[in-house]
Amino acid sequence: MSVLSNFTKKKADNFAGKSKVMIAITGANGHLGKATIQFLLQKVAPTDIVAIIRNPETVNEFKEKGVTTKQADYNDFNTLKEVFKGIETVLQISTIGVDIETAKQQEKNVVNAIVENNVKHIVYTSIVQARPNTIFQGTETQYHTEELIKETKIPYTFFRNSMYMEAIPELIGNVFQTNEIRYPSGSGKVSFVSRTDIAEAIANVLTENTHQNQTYEITGNKAYTFGELAKLLSAEMKHIDIADTTFREELIGYQMPVDVVDLLVSMANGIKVGEFSYTSDTLEKLLGRKPLDLNKYVKSL
Ligand SMILES: NC(=O)c1ccc[n+]([C@@H]2O[C@H](COP(=O)([O-])OP(=O)(O)OC[C@H]3O[C@@H](n4cnc5c(N)ncnc54)[C@H](OP(=O)(O)O)[C@@H]3O)[C@@H](O)[C@H]2O)c1
């Protein structure tokens, strides 16, 4: 027996006697998917986890952990309906929704494939305070998917995630050169939340029986304006609340496709009106400890 299969067998033996529930994770090779699998491996045998990936080139890192991989694309219902065979619990990780109609169809394909396979519990990653008619365009897809999942009558848990702390560097760019965050968010606040904490909480929910038909608002304990974020980054840092037309021109100047620019401008406008400001202590309850605080996170940048 190879070192690897020996290791996998030992891990599986550790979980012998525990009731076996097959858990599938879509978007498994993304940041949230990978982190969730890391936490799940502390709770269940690797052989109980199915990582669903689009790109077969990413198979090896899961194989090394003893996790099964299956290949499917959100655009292809025929691949999706095969990968949920024998699965009881699915973590459906939301798609990147630049084109809203495509994104809605991708998520519908996943939900329809889940329905065909007698799945018992869907955990879906949605967005904080998901509701119709928001300024941020991305919310439309995730609210639509929540409604589709509810219609299936399969027990669900919605993780309505606020903005990831880990997305801050991408959102504000290389601000340390200029000491300016140029972002049209006014005095709108964001309840930034650690993606790693979300992954740990999802792993808890996937392995517990008490979360059926729950909608969880997953946020940091406090919301911050971009002016407050600037001060956390450094005493010299300033938030410059540029006009959204200026922001749009700057993004187009980086050769960004217009639909991505529209999405990013809608996100800033959504922040400005408070669409990401909601706070809740649900994450703390799911983790059984305080979530990572923004102040601590920015010190690691
Ligand atoms: N709350 C926030 O601040 C925030 C920020 C960004 C995104 N999100 C949402 O949260 C989700 C998870 O976040 P993350 O950080 O893990 O994102 P990520 O690292 O970009 O991972 C996204 C995952 O979705 C997969 N995917 C995309 N299109 C697919 C398709 N057509 N078929 C199959 N798989 C597909 C990707 O596969 P490939 O590697 O093959 O592309 C990847 O595994 C995102 O997808 C997005 O909906 C939330």
Automatic annotation (TrEMBL):
Q: Where is the signal peptide?
A: none
Q: Which InterPro entries match?
A: NAD(P)-bd_dom_sf, NmrA-like, NmrA-type_oxidoreductase
Q: What is the lineage of its organism?
A: Bacteria, Pseudomonadati, Bacteroidota, Flavobacteriia, Flavobacteriales
Please name the CDD domains in this protein's record. Answer: TMR_SDR_a (cd05269)
Output this protein's name. SDR family oxidoreductase
| Domain annotation NmrA-like: ranges | 21-238
**Record's Gene3D superfamilies?**
NAD(P)-binding Rossmann-like Domain (3.40.50.720), UDP-galactose 4-epimerase, domain 1 (3.90.25.10)
Domain of life, per UniProt, equals Bacteria
SUPFAM superfamilies from the entry? NAD(P)-binding Rossmann-fold domains (SSF51735)
- Per the UniProt record, the source organism is Chryseobacterium carnipullorum
